[in-house]
Amino acid sequence: MIFIAILIGCILGAILGLNAPMISYTYSSYLAIAIIAALDSVFGGIASVIKKNFDLKIFISGFFGNAILAILLTILGQKLNVDIYLAAIVVFVWRMFMNLGTIRRYYVEKWTDIIKEKASSKSKKNNNEKEEKQGKEQEEK
Amino acid sequence: MKKGKIAMTITIGIACFALVTVMMMQFKVVNETDITAIEDMQESELKTQLANWKTRYEEIDAQYQEVAQRIEEYKNDEESNNEASRLVQEELEQTNTLLGLTDVHGEGIVITLKSGEDGAAISADDLLVIVNALKFAGAEAISINDERIVNTTDIVYISAGSFIKVNGQRILEPYVIKVIGNQSHMESAVTGTGGKVEELQTLGHTVTIEKDNDITIGKYNGEIETKYIE
Prior knowledge:
The structure holds 2 protein chains of 2 kinds.
Chain A: H1 2-19, H2 25-51, H3 56-80, H4 84-140
Chain B: H1 3-36, H2 43-99, E1 104-114, H3 124-136, E2 141-144, E3 147-148, E4 155-158, E5 163-166, E6 169-171, E7 175-180, H4 183-190, H5 196-202, E8 206-217
Antiparallel strand pairs in B: 1-7, 1-8, 2-3, 2-7, 4-5, 5-6
């Protein structure tokens, strides 16, 4: 369900983004850092959905707040002649990997569980059949 | 499905939508700027380059100013040279005119002298007196039978052949004296009581005086040479 929403959002966004007017190159560095922040927020949201502690307010405030904060930090860094955006990128990318790890672990565990269940149900069935056969044989005797 | 789950799904979908929109815009910008190859440089690099260009521009501008100033100077020089050469040219023309080395034209009179059939012919002395009188009256250019009177001109009577030489050239009657100058002054210099014309007329010679508003007097054909002037 959630993946359908993500897919639809991505497709619509791509269509709109490709038709949107060009932005000046001057602002593209701010935009890049905002994209990283938003990407981190989205992954964080998905991870929290999986962990079942998703909060709409936290997600929305994180999505916009992180992006705006990252842009402001970049501007400040340019004013101070310090590359603060590098620190922001490090933090966001690190968190992104953390969230991706959570998501990955969840699905790996889920799939292994499913496989295990299938395997165990199969062996149970086999066992049952064997027992039935053995029972029949015993009855025949 | 729970109400919270729907809201969550929609929110994440919208977030993805916004994210991908901005990402696509950014991709476009980066792609566009790829062409110019500026994005390969760091901002500091660009700043350095800009500073370099600025310095170079200033240098070249200073050079340009200098050159422009020099050109201005040359132009002024040229103008003054032109002025000087123009003055020299004018002076030369004036000198040539005065020396009789150029053809000149202007208002003046033409005196035609013809000897009477009996009695003595018109002599060189008569011509000399007339020329002298004309010069005294302010004549600017004189010629006798198209021989220009210049400062080396001689008017002599050659008795051996009984003819008159002007500028070393033999001239024959009728003697036509062309003068450029004030017409009335010229006329009164040679006519009037006691004038040479009257004298010649009483001796039986024919003298006619014509006024002309555009007389052309040819230049002196000989060469003015100096051997002893140092």
